[in-house]
Write a structure and sequence with these properties.
Largest sheet: 4 strands, antiparallel
Order of helices and strands: HHHHHEEEEEEEE
Oligomer: single chain
Shape: globular
Distance between the termini: 43 Å
């Protein structure tokens, strides 16, 4: 559905929350390049969304792991498929016990394997949730810091950027809007300039807000380059962005 030109300014919140797609999203991304008030609105909505996410996040119930493992005991296993014996009555006396034992061992191994897989999956989800929570907490802490300072910039490929830093927390947050999708096999890598030496500071894979992976203390500027998907120890391409850090 086309958005009337007079109403396009109202899409800032939906754009910040990735709630519009297709032609509408492309049209608003183009509009952002020309509209400073909307750029500011998008930055503020993304920062607010990060704060709300951190405030509303809930850890999984402590009993979830126990309930998941306990439920394994109730999973019904199919009985082993055995062919009818082709020998006489003594066949079962000779082989029945080994077959029953083998079936029991197979069932036990199946239960154990399922329990291990469920435990590993639950642990992976918990670790991922913990990491996401830590990132959100870090972003919220920087944005809410009383000494937080913000600067705005624009990349060479047209993206709108914001860096918010807190000297007290010694952390910085980077936000990008209208950032083009990188070519396959590449990603955007962030850098901090320490007296002419560019040090890796994390990645941003598209529009959104990230907490810099390195502390900004002693750095004077932030850079953005396109690097191989695994990242590089030092920049290998010309910077798309090199902006002074807020002071």
């Amino acid at each position: 559905m086309k958005q009337p030109a007079s109403d396009i300014h109202t899409l800032a919140a939906a754009y910040a929350l990735n709630a519009i797609e297709g032609a509408d999203r492309e049209a608003f991304a183009h509009h952002l390049r020309q509209c400073e008030p909307c750029r500011q609105d998008v930055m503020e909505f993304e920062a607010t969304a990060a704060r709300l996410a951190a405030a509303a996040a809930q850890p999984p119930p402590p009993a979830m792991k126990e309930r998941t493992l306990a439920a394994v005991d109730g999973v019904r296993q199919h009985p082993p498929h055995l062919k009818a014996p082709k020998t006489g009555p003594g066949y079962w006396r000779r082989t029945g016990m080994p077959l029953a034992l083998a079936a029991s061992l197979a069932a036990a191994a199946s239960f154990a394997g399922l329990a291990v897989r469920q435990h590993q999956t639950g642990e992976e989800h918990r670790q991922r949730a913990d990491r996401n929570q830590q990132r959100l907490d870090g972003i919220s802490t920087v944005l809410a810091a009383p000494d937080a300072r913000t600067v705005h910039g624009r990349t060479a490929n047209g993206a709108l950027t914001t860096v918010t830093a807190s000297a007290r927390e010694n952390r910085a947050v980077f936000t990008a809007a209208a950032l083009p999708t990188p070519a396959p096999g590449t990603t955007y890598q962030l850098w901090l300039n320490h007296q002419g030496t560019m040090r890796p500071a994390g990645f941003i894979h598209g529009n959104g807000t990230v907490l810099l992976a390195s502390r900004p203390s002693g750095a004077t500027a932030l850079g953005l380059t396109v690097e191989p998907s695994g990242g590089s120890p030092r920049p290998t391409t010309s910077p798309l962005l090199l902006m002074d850090l807020p002071t």
